[in-house]
Amino acid sequence: MRKNKSKSLSRYLAIQATFSQGFGFDKKSIEKDFINENDLNFHIDFENIKELNYYDKAFLKKIFNNVFEKDEIILALISQNLKSNWSFTRLPRILQAILRVAISEMISYPKTSMGIIISEYLKLAESFSIEKENSFINAILDKIHKKLQLDG
After folding, report:
1. Which residues have a Cβ under 8 Å from the Cβ of 129 and sit 6 or more positions away?
2. Binning pLDDT at 50, 70 and 90, where does residue 1 land?
3. How many C-beta neighbours within 10 Å does residue 111 have?
4. Exposed end of the chain (fewer CB within 10 Å): N or C?
């Protein structure tokens, strides 16, 4: 039996769940579909995930819940690090979801290596076909991580 559950799949599912929320689905129905039902009957388009049924449900639940519980903090961190002529709502929804989940993970698990977090979310951005945004994702997550460490 494996000891390590896939955090990559948990991150991927958290992004999809957060993305769903952007289209008006409420948190309870999203939790039911992505966390509580435990049936991965949705499209997985991330080739780096080998074992689809072996993901870290507790990790998924924590980072997903913190997207909502820390929403004001997360949105403020993103907004403060955008150029003055940009707003959060101007970002593509999938990019919003990736940033929100990545920052939620930084807040939830401050001891996780920043290198791991950034590389995981850059790989995930590729799976959602927004790899052209990787330098933006890298820069904004790095700035936010430094701010969180200072405020720590």
Report:
1. none
2. very low
3. 4
4. N
pLDDT average, residue stretch 81-106: 92
pLDDT tens-digit series, residues 37-85:
555 444 455 555 545 556 788 898 999 999 999 999 999 999 999 888 8
Spatial contact of 64 and 57, defined as CB atoms under 8 Å apart? no
Contacts of 95 (CB under 8 A, 6+ apart): 125, 130, 133, 136, 137
Domains, the chain, ordered by start: 7-151 (1.10.940.10)
